[in-house]
Every structure is written in C-alpha cells, then in structure tokens.
Amino acid sequence: MTVDVVVVAWNSADDLPAMLDSLPAAFGAVDYELVVVDNASGDDSAALAAAREGTRLVRLESNTGFTHAANVGARLGHGDLLLFLNPDVVCPPASMARLVDALASRPEAWGATPWFRFPDGEPQYFWRRLVGGAVTVLCFTRWGKRLDAALGHRAWRWRCYRDLPDPPGRRDIDGVGAACLLVGRSAFTEAGGFDERYFNFFQDGHLERQLRRQGRPLLGVGDVEVSHRAGSTLVRLPPWQVDAQMLLALRQFVRDEPPLRRLLVEAAIRLDLWLPHPHRKDRRRAVLAPVRAPLHRG
C-alpha cells in the first residue's frame, strides 16, 4: 500500500511544522508522498512546506476553499490510498501505519479514520452520525442549539457519538470531518471526489452519504488516536462568516435529501436568519446564495 497525503493549508504556519514533523514516525515503513496545497496564504505556510524535502507544494492564486484544493492535491498522486490531513493534526508514532493496516483488514470499507483528541487529551468526539432533519435543525441553527441546550444537548450528543466509551474501539460509523480521513483512491475517484459545489463544509458529509448509500462502511479506528486543535484557521474569520458558510453548505447538502427533510431544514434556516443578529443583512445575503441541484446520487 502506498499513500498520498493531501494537506490543504490556509494561513497555517502556526500548525504546519508540528504536523510535518510527526509524519515520518507516524508512517514508519509505509510508503507515502506528501502534497501541500496552499490556498493563497498570507503567512509563511507555503515557504514552510517548500522547505521540507520530499514535499510537493501547489500554490493556488486565490483561496478556493478546502474542497477544490483537496481535489487538486488528490489528482496529483497515484497511491493506492489517499490521506486527507489537516495542518492542525499531530500524528503519534505508528498511528498512520496502523490506520493503513486497519483499512487493509476491511476491504469492504471505503475509508478509515482515527479517534480524535484535543491537545490537552480530552476526547473531541469528531465522528459524526448522518442524522435526520429534526436533529440537524437542533445542531446547526442558533435557535435550535439553544433549544437543544435546554434539553441537555441530546441532539448534539447523538450526532457526535457521545454515547460511545472513550476510547471507543473499532466500529463502523456514518462519517467524520475530513481532518484525518484515509480513503481508498478507487472509491474516492468513483464517487467523483469531493463535490466542489461545497466551499469549506459538508463536502465530507456528502461523500460519506454517497458511499453509505452504496452500502460501503467507514471504519472508525478508536484504538488509533491523533491530536487535533480543530478550527485553528477558522478563528481567523469573523464568527458570523463561519456560521454563514456552514448554513449555506447545509442548504446545499439537504438538496439531495428527501423533500420533507429538505423543507424542514430550509424553513428552520430561514427562521434563524430573521432572528436579531449584529450582521443579519450580511448573514442573510451569504446564507441565501443560490444552491445548485445535486450532480448525481450515490
């Protein structure tokens, strides 16, 4: 097995060195090639990557978002497997070699992902269930989050697999954020890669939904762990912009869901946009941008 590691960087200079330093020991004897796609960073991200021997650097002229940049990196390699890895992830020794072995042991699985922890060791609960409309509303809209908090965060806990022990062992899961996601190249290619209708969010959920509809599992490898700061680049954006990107991506995601679920989520988002907010006009304009019909169904 050979692995193409695809790292999308955007103003990631604070995190990139530790991630790059961790890779040789994490892979051990497993052959891998590293591609860093820089999304027009304004810091030293590209220079740091260029200085690393054996790293292939692609500089994009503008910030195209994670989805397009990840596809660019994936197309450059020829390995059996693809590892999408965020700059703010640190991989312990032998962790990626063990993740490769875990996926090889389950040929019916399309991908594998480790158990995530914050740098202080606390579990991150980064695995995700693909949930119905009501839970989606409670997890993503401002008013839904407030209601879920009053209910003891039941929806959030269900979506994030908070019912699992820590660590959770190995099990099939619905999905995960693509911060450390190992996939078979053939499965990724046959699915069309990440759908570039998405800018930063839900492109991983879209891919996972397609492959799940084909009956192929995603393997959660809870006995392999990585450290993940989570959102280290998003903090550079105003919170309302991050929220708007998320809600627009959610509107795109539900275009390929059953009609009643789509209508429920769309109505809940529009209600959320009418509630008082310091940036209500800008937020409405960003979230209600046109979404496109599904390109295909898995």
The major sheet is characterized as: 9 strands, mixed
Strand content: 15-25%
Tell me, briefly, the overall form.
globular
In the CATH hierarchy, what is the architecture of the largest domain at level 2? Alpha-Beta Complex
Oligomer status: single chain
Supply the helix-strand structural class: alpha/beta
Measured as a percent range, the helix fraction is 40-55%
How many strand segments? 11
Please tally the helical runs, counting DSSP H or I stretches of 4 or more residues.
12
CATH topology of the largest domain: Spore Coat Polysaccharide Biosynthesis Protein SpsA, Chain A
Q: For the residues shown, what is the average pLDDT?
A: 93
CATH class category name of the largest domain: Alpha Beta
- Rg (C-alpha, Å): 19 Å
User: What sequence of helices (H) and strands (E) makes up the elements?
Assistant: EHEHEHEEHEEHHHEEEHHEHHH
Distance between the termini: 26 Å
Number of structural units classed as domains: 2
